[in-house]
Design brief:
The structure is a single chain. By secondary structure, the chain is α/β, with parallel strands linked by helices. It has a single domain, classed as Putative cyclase (Glucose Oxidase, domain 1), CATH 3.50.30. About 20% of the residues lie in helices and about 20% in strands. The chain contains 8 helices and 13 strands. Helix 4 packs across helix 6 and helix 6 packs parallel to helix 7. The chain is globular and about 65 Å long. The two termini are about 30 Å apart.
């Protein structure tokens, strides 16, 4: 059996392209929101602990992590407003079994869509936006125009602030005292009105965090997850994509099917034609 001409063409195109890994490396001690349990890994079995008769041995680990640690995607069950999830689903009723029976992480679809990078930092002429800077609709539109791309319905839009350069410094990355740059509610509404499927960023929450505010209020989460049913992808590594001035690409990501979960670890890829 041979591949169809159409599939062969697709495979040839992808083979000639370049793949960018957009995920942060999962490691013990990495930056994590204080609202979530952090990532921990320990070797449960080491080579030599138990040798087989033929001289071989195996090693394995124990991993403990929250669903919103490192590069991850928020399920629609992650946020509620006035006791309701997206679509008016009663949050208390949906979580009674110890896992969500509506909008769980297992309902997040695989993504194979057009991706757009809006490199706000580059358009502003800086490597990293200052703490707490707001990224509004006009800023996103200016950034898109500068890159020569149009945000369309069905897109995955990734917003680069440059903030992931601080990822190795957890306190600075979290920005609890000084804030974190990110999109505002009007920018989120513009993206939602355009018809995007998901919005991603290189910070802890994608949205603007003012100095001293922390995650006490997250209006963009409410607007996108609850009101509009649009997924949020957080803590992306967009630096290599930005360094090569890539603004349009094939976005590929497959969330884990965690039954009733509120989020999933993610390893997104950006694939370019050449």
């Amino acid at each position: 059996m041979t591949a169809s001409p159409g599939l062969a063409s697709v495979l040839a195109s992808l083979s000639a392209g370049k793949v960018y890994d957009l995920a942060q490396t999962l490691q013990t001690g990495m930056a994590c929101s204080p609202n979530h349990p952090g990532f921990r890994m320990a070797l449960q079995r080491r080579h030599g602990d138990q040798n087989r008769a033929d001289g071989t041995s195996s090693a394995s680990e124990l991993i403990i992590t929250g669903g919103h640690v490192g590069t991850h995607i928020d399920a629609l069950s992650h946020f509620s407003d006035a006791g309701c999830l997206h679509g008016g689903v009663d949050a208390a009723a949906a979580q009674q079994t110890g896992r969500f029976t509506k909008h769980g992480a297992e309902t997040i679809p695989p993504f194979l869509r057009r991706g757009v990078l809006l490199d706000v930092a580059a358009t502003a002429g800086v490597e990293v936006l200052a703490p707490g800077v707001s990224v509004d609709t006009a800023t996103l539109q200016t950034t898109a125009a500068a890159a020569g791309v149009e945000v369309r319905a069905g897109d995955i839009v990734l917003v680069r602030t440059g903030w992931s350069r601080h990822f190795a410094d957890p306190q600075r990355f979290l920005g609890i005292h000084d804030g974190v740059p990110g999109i505002t509610t009007d920018a989120a509404a513009w993206l939602a009105d355009t018809g995007v499927v998901a919005v991603g960023g290189d910070t802890t929450s994608v949205e603007q965090i003012s100095a001293g505010q922390g995650h006490s209020l997250l209006p963009v989460h409410r607007l996108l997850l609850v009101e509009r049913g649009i997924y949020l992808i957080e803590m992306l590594d967009l630096e290599k994509l930005a360094a090569d001035n890539i603004a349009e690409f094939l976005f590929v990501a497959i969330p884990l099917k965690i039954l009733g979960g509120t989020g999933s670890p993610l390893r997104p890829l950006a694939v370019t034609a050449q």
